[in-house]
Amino acid sequence: MHAALRVALWTVGILLLVVVLAALGLRLFDWNLVKDEIAAQLGRRLGTKVAIAGDLDIGVAAGLLTVQARGVRVDGTLEAAEPLLALERLEAGIALARLLRGDVVFDRIALTRPRLTLIREGDGDVNWDFGRAPDEGESAGGPVLPPVRQLVVNDGSVIYRDHLLDATVRATIDRLSGFLSADAASLQGSGRIAGRPLVLKAQARYLEPRDDWRVSARLDVADARLALDGMPGSGGVDLRLEVPEPAQLAFLPLPDEFRRIPDLRASGHIERRHGAWHARDLRLAVGAHALTGAARVGADGRIEAQVGIADARLSVTGSLEAPDLRIEAVAPRPERLDFLPLPDLPAAGPAALDVRIVRHRGHWLFEDLVLALGELRLDGDVRIEPERERPMIYATLHLNELPLPRADQRRDQLIPPVELPTDLLRLVDVRLDLGIDRVTGAPVVIDDLVLELTLDRGRLVLRPVSADIAGGALSGQVIYDAGAASPSATVRLALRGLDLARLVPDQTERLRGRMSGRIELHGRGPTAQALAGNLDGQLLFTLRDGAIDASWVEALDLDLAEWLTASAVPGTLQTPIRCALVAFTVQDGVLSAEPVVIDTRDSVIVLEGQIGLATEQLKLTLEAYPKDPSALSIESSVRVAGTLLEPSVDVLDAETAGQGALALVLGALAGPLAALVPYFDPGLAKDQNCGQLLGATPQGPPPAGRQ
Q1: Which of 153, 484, 524, 564 is the most exposed place for a label (fewest CB within 10 A)?
Q2: Do 548 and 603 contact (CB within 8 A), yes or no?
Q3: Cα(666)–Cα(668) distance, rounded to whole angstroms?
Q4: What gap in Å lies between CA 671 and CA 597, rounded to an integer?
Q5: Which parts of 615-703 are beta strand (E)?
Q6: Rounded CA gap, 498 and 516, in Å?
Q7: Distance of CA 308 to CAs 289, 340, 666, Å?
Q8: At residue 341, does pLDDT exceed 90?
Q9: Strand partners of residue 64
């Protein structure tokens, strides 16, 4: 027995000696010699790079294996100048007795001045994606976290940079403390986010009879509060969000419309049953308005969701796997949704949307699209290819009617000094085929309009493939190049056979004829006003087979001022228009009339002057010259001044004039179009033929600044 006792004593002594020697070895060994290898091993396990820039010390104290490290750096999964996590100091204590039995239990973990930087790039990649195949004996979700009896974080910070949303959110952590065990967890802390106070409280307790966790958490940011309570695995979780003043969350990457909401409250219940997630009793209150709904997402990714707000309804069905979704929405009275952050819609009646959204080979397809608003209906198909250098949009659409908005009569200027959307045009490329049955609200109704629009690297080209404008035809193209250093616009349009009776429908009884013409303009400028003020080019319009109310011509011959200031009574079309020629040259945004002449049976009506597009000023003079040689005088002429929005008319006394004055005026006006002079001989005014006049128009591209 004494021998056995001696053996036992020697055994205990040797074990104590081993422990003492091990402790002394841990204390005396310079761990900085192997800190790089330790960091490399940890980095390989995480799938990233780990570095320890400061001292590493491992020892034994009070029954704990202690670890202290300074200057710890953990890189993220993206190449970035900033690490995912940077620690000024890490302190950890591991229960030594439990460690000898093979269990890892942290008695304490303390982090001093940790800095966590989360980044999402423009392509959606993030710097915290450490996805890797699980090691042997490890679950697919990763290794189980060891218990932590005490967790302390002091003076920390979190930065979230979202390049996709062009937003940055910063938060500071004054102090965070808690614990984590096999059947309970707790976390509480305080700090600030974007200068606003932040408070976090969370608790979890494992309920063995139900094999589930009871979770309760609350996050307060200023006056906003997010809370959850329940059992995620069985009974479900109740969620509640209260934001009394959304403007306080202006630091978040949210739409401006969200920040203008007076009050926001949301609640709902989420649970998992039979492998499917169910959301019920969903409610989102915005001020005095509330949205309600429910949803179900199955294990196979099938979704069914219904949402209602006011008398509007939205349903989503299909699969989230591909995805392949059908979205249907109906709003009998869209004006009741004006509190939502939606585009302004015309008060045209009920609204409806029906579309199938599919993702196929990296492309987003919007198939069988139907959007209805009152009597308006848009239908077609859209394909978006987001993975190109610039997202590419292909669309084939049909619109039954396009009502153009009426000009705001309260404006001081017809051409506003607003910035043109150059940045937006550089973001995407577009190929659009658009058919419009009718365009209304314009100066003239356009029927059966077919447009082809291309946008390539900021260069937009709009081509009218076909159109019925007042019984005539439109061809040409409009180009706006936002990709150049200085944005530019070019307009080349040709009009053929427009019916004046349809062009000016309220003057059908007074005016008729067929008008043709051509528009050639080019200019540069970052705003619509600057662009108009730099335009160069020409405009030419001609009229044939026309007629004008005889009372109009008589008014022009006898008392032009009285005719312009009083309404003439519609009469019978008696006086034919032999020919009308409207020609303007445009230089530096100034339209100069050269010439504008209307040749009727009894008179020649002449318009002289200029229109400044940059200033919108009018400087025009209108006169009528009788052809009858016995009419040796003109009683008056009229000057049109003011602006495009507010023109003014003044009566000018005209000196005695006759056939000689007419010759001088027409000769001066015809100078820029010298080829027309032989066909515009005042001596043959009564016999001149509009066909001859038009036949003299030069063919082919006109000289710069001339038509």
Answers
A1: 484
A2: no
A3: 5
A4: 13
A5: 617-626, 636-642, 647-653
A6: 6
A7: 11, 13, 71
A8: no
A9: 61, 95
pLDDT at 577 over 80: no
Q: How far is CA 163 from CA 77, 86, 421, 430, 548, in A?
A: 16, 21, 21, 24, 64
- Pairing type for strands 236-243 and 264-273 reads antiparallel
Give strand pairing partners of 351. Answer: 331, 373
What DSSP assignment string belongs to 488-532?
A: EEEEEEEEEEEEHHHHSGGGTTTEEEEEEEEEEEEEE-SBHHHHH
Distance of alpha carbon 24 from alpha carbon 95, whole angstroms: 18
**Residue 28 has what pLDDT?**
59
Instruction: Return phi, psi of residue 375, to 5°.
Output: -85, -5
Of residues 52, 58, 64, the one with CA closest to residue 88: 52
Question: Could you give the CA distance from residue 120 to residue 128 in angstroms, rounded to a whole number?
Answer: 9
391: β partners: none
Query: Tokens 């159109």, residue?
Result: 467
| Segments of 550-657 assigned E as strands | 573-587, 590-600, 603-612, 617-626, 636-642, 647-653
CA gap 578, 546 in Å, rounded: 7
Contact 222, 243 (CB under 8 A): no
> Beta strands 363-373 and 85-95: pairing type?
unpaired
First-to-final CA distance of the chain: 128
Structure tokens that stand for 436 in this block: 């419009």
Q: How far apart are CA 342 and CA 310, in angstroms?
A: 15
Q: Is it the case that residue 601 has pLDDT exceeding 60?
A: yes
For residue 657, which of 625, 685, 621 has the smallest C-alpha distance?
Answer: 625
Question: Poorest-confidence range of 22-31, 570-579, 690-699?
Answer: 690-699
Q: Could you say which DSSP state residue 400 is in?
A: S
Exposure class string for 270-291: b at 16+ Cβ within 10 A, else e: bbbeeeeebbeebebebeeeeb
Residue 62 phi/psi, 5-degree rounding, is: 55, 45
Q: Determine the pLDDT at residue 13.
A: 43
Q: How far is CA 173 from CA 53, 196, 697, in A?
A: 23, 12, 80
Q: Please report which confidence band the pLDDT of residue 86 belongs to, taking 50, 70 and 90 as the band edges.
A: very high
Amino acid found at 489 = A
What is the residue whose two structure tokens read 């006898």? Answer: 558
Rg (CA), the chain: 40
Contact assessment for residue 156 and residue 115, using Cβ atoms and an 8 Å cutoff: yes
Q: What are the φ and ψ backbone dihedral angles of 554, each rounded to 5 degrees?
A: -60, -40
What is the dihedral sign for C-alpha 386, 387, 390, 393? negative
d(CA 201, CA 219): 7
Structure tokens at 464: 């009218």
CA distance 427 to 457: 8
At residue 666 the predicted structure's pLDDT band, cuts being 50, 70 and 90, is: very low
Identify which of 459, 470, 450 has the alpha carbon closest to the alpha carbon of residue 430.
Answer: 459
Residue 144's alpha-carbon distances to 130, 175, 180, in angstroms, are 16, 26, 12
Choose between 585 and 465: higher pLDDT: 585
Tally of helices (H runs) and strands (E runs) in the chain: 11, 37
- Give the Å distances, CA to CA, from 49 to 36, 283, 300, 674: 11, 45, 37, 81
Strand partners, 304: 296, 317
Q: Give DSSP secondary structure letters for 86-109.
A: EEEEEEEEEEHHHHHTT---EEEE
Contact 302, 333 (CB under 8 A): no
